[in-house]
Amino acid sequence: MKENEKSSKLVWFLLVIAVPAVFAVTVFGIVLSFMGVNVLEEAKNSGKKIPIVKNVFNDETQAASATQNKDKRWQIKFNEQEEYIKIVSADLKKKEKEVTGLKNEIALLEKQMEDAETSVKADEKKQLKKLYEAMSAKDAAAVFSEMNNDEVLGILTLLQTESQAAILAKLDAKRAAELTVLMASNSL
Question: What angle, rounded to 10 degrees, do the helices at 137-144 and 161-170 form?
């Protein structure tokens, strides 16, 4: 019976006092919300003034603060990395321009070197031409007899027709025929 009395008192308390109180607080909160009052924020602020509830809000605030600090640190690191990427990208573009400039300079120098080689070869050919044209046909034929056909052919093509004829006339008939055939096949 005592247990029934205790449970009936508890039921009476819940039905008569607790449920209507919760209902009244809820209705009051809804009315305040319609009036423009932020009920949850006000409840938190009021709860912070109560010693036991204060610890709960401090823990939430500390956790939120720690999360915000962590977010700020990550944002700072992210911004630093973005800045570093911008610097490296600018440096890369600068280096690419330098490489392009150097490639152009190399191409120009190669062209100049090729032109210089061509000029030197032309000068050497002129000197060789002057040398063999100044030489007697007999002496040139003696020198040619010691050279291979490709070398002789290269020199003969530099000389004027009269000099070519005089030198070929002084060479061995067989060798002169070989050189004539080579000259004819090169001119075609």
Answer: 70
CA distance 58 to 48: 8
Closest by CA position to 137, among listed 170, 159, 160: 170
Residue 103: both structure tokens together: 């490639």
**What is the 8-class DSSP label of residue 145?**
T
> CB neighbours of 29 closer than 8 A, spacing ≥ 6?
39
Confidence of residue 3 (pLDDT cuts 50, 70, 90): low
Q: What is the dihedral of CA 135, 139, 145, 149, to 10 degrees?
A: 10
At 40-95, the pLDDT tens digits run 787 777 766 776 655 655 556 666 677 888 888 899 999 999 999 999 999 999 99
CA distance 161 to 167: 10
The crossing angle, in degrees rounded to 10, of helices 39-47 and 19-34 is: 120
**C-alpha closest to that of 152 among 143, 165, 162, 161:** 143
How many C-beta atoms surround the C-beta of residue 140 within 10 A? 25
**Amino acid letter, residue 86:** K
E strand segments, the chain? none
